[in-house]
Amino acid sequence: MEVPRLASGHGSCLNSSKQMSVPDDSASVSLRCFGVGDGWPSADRRHSAYLYRLGTARLLVDCGDGFSQSYKASGLSYEALDGILLTHMHSDHVGGFSMFLQGLWLERRTRPLIVAAPAGGIPALQAWLEATLLSPALFGFPLHWLPLVAGQAVEIAGVTVEPARTGHLDSLKAKLAAAHPQVCFEALAFGLSGAGKRVVHSGDIGAPVDLEPLLGQPVELLTCELAHIELPELAAVLRRQRIRQAVFMHLGRDHWADRPGTLRRLADALPGTEVRVAVDGDEFTA
Ligand SMILES: [Zn+2]
């Protein structure tokens, strides 16, 4: 399908609330972590939501529970986003989607918005909006659905988005797909190229080798989950790549409970990479 090209330039503003770090607008690429939680309920982490800025383009990756509130608290304009990219259909990645769209409607967004998701998940997302009384006919902005297929790059607001398949949902698919043929079991990682830089966002993976197709060229920033994989196995794959900075998120509960130890083990395992462990509200530049 044709991908609408959106005009650049935003009326967004960024505040410096106590919870959020002050952003560095001079950097050409930034990542703002709105929710770094894993799939479990957590008192100190919201669920997955990551805002990337590449040049003038702003793309949200995943829209987990809590995003509507944390976005409002950030002071960002409701016109700011160019697109929302969803990695897969687990609730910790899409649970805040309909509420955030309700916010875009009530806050009177006018700019077009692209929602890109695994192709098989889009009918369910559309039905969910309708079921929560959010018919796009009400919206004051055009909503463009963009079905993503692994291996087929698309362009959003000047950013090249490369979806790559991960095996995160393979075992669930083997168990449930026959009885639930309408369910989307696709899970994606993303390569994002824009402003002369390259970023990789892991989404949820089945094995570290899932990331290799996206890491064949140098990356400025890798945002990588640490819930479904063993750290030594992951490090063995990442050590072979040219990654300037790696931000780890979606930590499993043991890793989260011992963040200093996790950070130390990651830094020891990845000597050529700047390593970070993200908490909600963190901002990173690349
Ligand atoms: Zn997850």
Distance, first to last CA: 32 Å
**From the 3D coordinates, which CATH architecture would you assign?**
4-Layer Sandwich
Q: Report the sheet-strand fraction.
A: 25-35%
> CATH superfamily assignment?
Ribonuclease Z/Hydroxyacylglutathione hydrolase-like
Q: Report the count of strand segments.
A: 14
Helix proportion of residues, in percent? Answer: 10-25%
Mean pLDDT: 92
Largest sheet: 7 strands, mixed
Task: Tell me the Rg in angstroms.
Answer: 18 Å
**SSE topology string:** EEEHEHHEHEEEHEEEHEHHEE
- CATH topology type: Metallo-beta-lactamase, Chain A
* Tally of individual helices: 8
Strand order in the sheet with the most strands: 6-5-4-3-2-1-14
Decide which structural class fits the backbone. Answer: alpha/beta
**Inertia-based shape:** globular
Name of the CATH class: Alpha Beta
The number of distinct structural domains comes to: 1
Bound molecules: zinc ion
Low-confidence stretches: 1-22
Structure in words:
Helices cover 22% and strands 28% of the residues. The chain is α/β, with parallel strands linked by helices and 286 residues long. It has a single domain (29-285), classed as 4-Layer Sandwich (Metallo-beta-lactamase, Chain A). The strands form 2 sheets. Strands 6-5-4-3-2-1-14 form a 7-stranded mixed β-sheet. A 7-stranded mixed β-sheet has the order 7-8-9-10-11-12-13. Strand 3, helix 1 (67-74) and strand 4 form a beta-alpha-beta unit. The longest helix has 11 residues, at 259-269. The protein binds zinc ion. The site of zinc ion has 7 residues, from helix 2. Zinc ion binds at residues 38-39, 90, 92-93, 204, 250.
